[in-house]
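Final report, results section. Input specification for complex C-07:
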Amino acid sequence: MQLAPARTVRIAAAPGRAPLVLTWRRMLPSYALAAGLTCLVALVAIGWGTVRISPLTTLAILLDHLPLVSTGEHAPTYDAIVWQVRAPRVILAGMVGATLAFSGAAYQGVFRNPLAEPYLLGVAAGASVGATLIIVSPLFITAGLLSPLPPAAFAGALIAVGLAYMLARTGPVVPATSLILAGVAVSSVGTSVVTYLMLEYNTRTLAILNWILGGFNTASWTDAGIALPYMLVAIVVILPYARILNVMQLDEDQARQLGVDTERTKLIILGAASLATAAAVAVSGLIGFVGLVVPHGVRMMYGPDYRRVLPLSAFFGASFLIIADLIARTIDPTFEVPIGVITALVGAPFFLFLLRRQQRYGGARI
Amino acid sequence: MTLRIRGLSAGYPARPVLDGLDLDVARGELVVLLGPNGCGKTTLLRAITGVLPARAAAIILDGQDLAAMKPRRLARRVATVAQASALPERFTAFECVLMGRTPHLSLFQSEGSRDVAAVRAAMERTGCWDLRDRLADELSGGERQRVVIARALAQEPRLLLLDEPTSHLDLQHQVETFRLVLDLCRDQDLAALAVVHDVTLAATFADRVALMSGGRILACGPPAQVLREDLLRDVYGVAVRILAHPVTGRPIAVPETVHLAAPDIAWLERIADPDAVLEDSPGREPHPAVPLPDVAQPPPAVRLPVQANKGVPR
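Structure output:
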């Protein structure tokens, strides 16, 4: 007996049948799946550490903190570990990962450039300058609720992006290429300022470096509360533009001739994405690679439609950064590895794996 | 009258291109813009779509001023097919044509069955429905241009603008594309304005030809009236012969033949010989200016060396 050769075949629509149109409703199952996966990852990550707590116990403790829900008595040490230490850290990592990946996808869509990432327009450099100025100033309070670091980093990031946008502007239009170049220039200025301050105030060098490398070891519910509104605003503002972002993948002239107000769309999407990225950087420092790699991974697995790429980037970005943070805090019990090291170390090979897999299947959608 | 342009001036800040241009295009009519590079043909199309702001103009389509319209409203009335339009990677042909529905959808709307029906009608009309599941970046040039025309049709426009739609296509696809555009004009009652470089192609399909030069329209009318030898020589600066098509009688434009003079033949034969020592050649220009021959007595035809390019130092 002969077996049919096993191979993947793209299911073509029956003759005369129109292909299915991707609408938000048709994509809900994939969102639900990704959201469920992200929650599962978060639950496992909260339970993991020097003290292991099972996901079920973790869930019970977390639910107990919701208003009007009671899941019985829990050991106070477990409760403190879950609610005070790990939950804010994991949730903040998830929020920052979601924000960076979502903003990265939006940036790549607007610039039609696969190398675009949320730090492109100077967010990272601006935030570093803001944070560094605070660290070297007498204002510097090591950490805590009233630390002026997040607001300073946030302001620095927004000033840098605004500067890049204004420098790139020629009359009524802001050409994408000029914007990228202006972002590069602003970033270089920011980086040189930070380098100078690091050397000038050499007693604070380690503190500056610590902030730049980023991480979640000081994460608190306050940090999560700071970042949440910006993240939600970015998602609510950008998500309706997903279909327009598809059209923007044509060149700008064609998009305009299809009735897209390209200048306004660019301003709105980049503004919202930069705002959220600035907030994420302000509470976590500079964490690279998430905003670049995650959207590409999503695109390779689920195709180029931004109605899929944007939400799924947020979910997978959250999972990715939660896992990276988990590795960073557990791989060596005596020492916490900077999370940026993990994101690059895990992200780059995974990205190459996806790239090769895509080439093998001839670019077909998987 | 569908499209009525009066006194259109437009251009770039440093360089005004169009200078008080008037043009009318009627419904069901294909008007072709002809003219040398830089005379403002593409600028005219871009000014109509509002991509390039017009400085002083009345651009009226069906009684409505296009210049005052928001981009989305304008895109429901005017569709553009550019030369070799790039299509985004990894989107299917169907999804690309579906993008033509953009001006009909508000920000929070998704495509519905009406949009799919419009896309299907457009793709069937342009003969690319069978390509619907193919990836757009894997299509051939001719297939891609049909997808782009289908996308323009899916906008359900009243005016179709074409900017050198066939400049990257072979002869068969050139003819098919223009046949299609002309048919669309007729049976969908579209007005079409096309920029074309091939004078003969323009004469074959255009209802009217508008000959442009220096930001103005010099002459506009049926091909046989506009495509005159004197006008074309003035506009393009080369001597052109107008012949009649043996079947349709429409004009065919051919440049007056330039024959190579005898010394150049010797030079070509010399560089065609791989053993020739080129350093020995007297320092002459590789492309000498050749005086136009006396047309009454054409010089005898010469056989060019077949491998004329071999051995040319690069």
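Chain A touches chain B at residues 10, 12-13, 18-19, 21, 23-25, 171, 240-241, 243-244, 246-247, 249-251, 253-254, 256-261, 299, 303-305, 363, 365 (CB under 8 Å). Chain A has 14 helices and no strands. This concludes the modelling results for the funded period.
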